[in-house]
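Worked example 3 (structure in, sequence out).
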């Protein structure tokens, strides 16, 4: 490639608190507009903010999990700008003294190896409201919903260490996994509880100085982040090769049209006139609090991934998928406690179960098939009670009805046929009805065995034990030579 992309991300994670950052209003998503507000989050004159201690606890967990340095105290500041969904005309955020500095997340590279993406800072701030624009091209009305105003956010800013859209996607997936393992954020990008803005520029390979960057907003999925960055990188390269200058601007991503469009230009940095928030004292984090929080951290995705590979003997790829959420890792391990077949369990989760869940846009915690029920079905298959083909039928019925495997097998008489005399009768019929393939086998064309086995399975409606069928069929074919 003649050009290299330089990408930095700014991620806003909504913290899992029941109340807002500086007042007692609910943070519940989806309530009727302006029903979760009070004089504090609406910025009425004379009101005073009160800091939510749980926010500091969740932020501290995140900072330690991301290997960040947590200073003894951080300071809130007022970020001044006017926008219709910002009732105070300023946002309480952090600036010169953020909650944490530095840190990193490691990602797996497509061509092998690992790369460390470094963090610049982690700071706390309150969310703004939401503008709701009127429907239709001729509408001039806009409305403001202040329910989101004051919701606690953790902003995580990376260094410009990312060199491709795929790396950006991998970074975000790893970050989401960490945040959900810690239970500090639900990671729901569609509902806006995990949001990402990207700064991207391109430069000729080998050049040390950065190119002119643009900011991309409105990306509500990992796929959209990757596609938006790919589009923007191509757009900038096309402009440069066409003799045009890339301008510093903010662009919005349109996922339906798969293109970005200009929102506003940034000829110079905006002056937000930061100054210390006079109504809030510094947030102090002492060493004992840090040490106690560090001891309480759960097993995080990378550590769990390494343990699953070592303990269960599954591939690194399978472990990566299974540890993408703590619920999925727990599901896998619960299955393995019932049936000691880790490879079988991982294959059924990743191929069969995830296909159904992804189609229905469900996470594994909402799966109609619980871990114990899947493991019980796999145990029936491993014990020879049902065949692999029947197991897939049973699985589909379990997913659709919520019934257990044993009930479905009994109701529909799906138990695998293992009676040798019964199988011999079916096999004798198949040999008699297929003289051509039988003759081919006896003449050395061994591939016809698969056809004959298939005919037996078809005649038994998939209930014959495949291993027993294979053994009996070979014996009968070879005994008559």
């Amino acid at each position: 490639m003649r050009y290299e992309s330089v990408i930095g991300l700014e991620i806003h994670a909504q913290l899992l608190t029941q109340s807002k950052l500086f007042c007692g209003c609910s943070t519940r998503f989806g309530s009727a507009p302006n029903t979760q507000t009070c004089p504090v989050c609406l910025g009425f004159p004379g009101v005073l903010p009160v800091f939510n201690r749980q926010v500091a606890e969740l932020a501290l967990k995140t900072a330690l999990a991301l290997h960040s340095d947590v200073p003894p105290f951080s300071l809130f500041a007022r970020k001044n700008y006017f926008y219709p969904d910002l009732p105070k005309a300023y946002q309480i955020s952090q600036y010169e003294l953020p909650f944490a500095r530095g840190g990193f997340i490691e990602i797996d590279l497509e061509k092998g190896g690992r790369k460390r993406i470094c963090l610049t800072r982690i700071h706390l701030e309150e969310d703004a409201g939401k503008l709701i624009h009127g429907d239709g091209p001729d509408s001039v009305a806009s409305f403001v919903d202040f329910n989101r105003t004051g919701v606690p956010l953790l902003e995580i800013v990376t260094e410009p260490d990312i060199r491709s859209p795929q790396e950006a996607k991998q970074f975000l997936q790893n970050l989401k996994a960490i945040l959900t393992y810690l239970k500090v954020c639900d990671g729901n990008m569609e509902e806006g509880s995990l949001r990402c803005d990207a700064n991207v520029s391109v430069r000729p390979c080998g050049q040390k100085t950065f190119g002119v960057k643009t900011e991309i907003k409105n990306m509500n999925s990992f796929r959209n982040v990757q596609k938006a960055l790919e589009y923007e990188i191509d757009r900038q390269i096309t402009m440069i090769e066409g003799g045009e200058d890339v301008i510093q601007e903010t662009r919005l991503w349109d996922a339906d049209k798969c293109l970005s469009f200009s929102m506003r230009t940034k000829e110079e940095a905006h002056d937000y006139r930061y100054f210390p928030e006079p109504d809030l004292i510094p947030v102090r984090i002492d060493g004992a609090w840090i040490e106690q929080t560090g001891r309480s951290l759960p097993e995080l995705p990378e550590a769990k991934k390494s343990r699953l590979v070592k303990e269960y003997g599954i591939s690194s790829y399978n472990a990566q998928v299974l540890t993408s959420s703590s619920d999925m890792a727990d599901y896998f391990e619960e299955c393995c406690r019932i049936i000691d077949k880790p490879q079988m369990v991982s294959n059924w989760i990743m191929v069969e179960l995830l296909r159904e869940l992804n189609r229905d846009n469900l996470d594994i915690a909402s799966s109609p098939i619980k871990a114990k029920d899947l493991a019980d079905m796999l145990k029936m298959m491993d014990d020879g009670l049902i065949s692999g083909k029947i197991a897939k039928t049973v699985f589909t019925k379990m997913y659709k009805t919520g019934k257990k495997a044993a009930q479905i097998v009994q109701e529909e008489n799906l138990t695998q046929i293992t009676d040798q005399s019964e199988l011999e009768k079916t096999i004798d019929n198949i040999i008699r009805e297929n003289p051509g393939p039988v003759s081919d086998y006896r003449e050395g064309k061994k591939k016809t065995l698969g056809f004959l086995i298939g005919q037996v399975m078809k005649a038994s409606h998939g209930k014959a034990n495949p291993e027993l069928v294979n053994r009996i069929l070979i014996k009968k074919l070879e005994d008559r030579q």
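Notes: The longest helix spans residues 222-241. Residues 3-289 form one domain.
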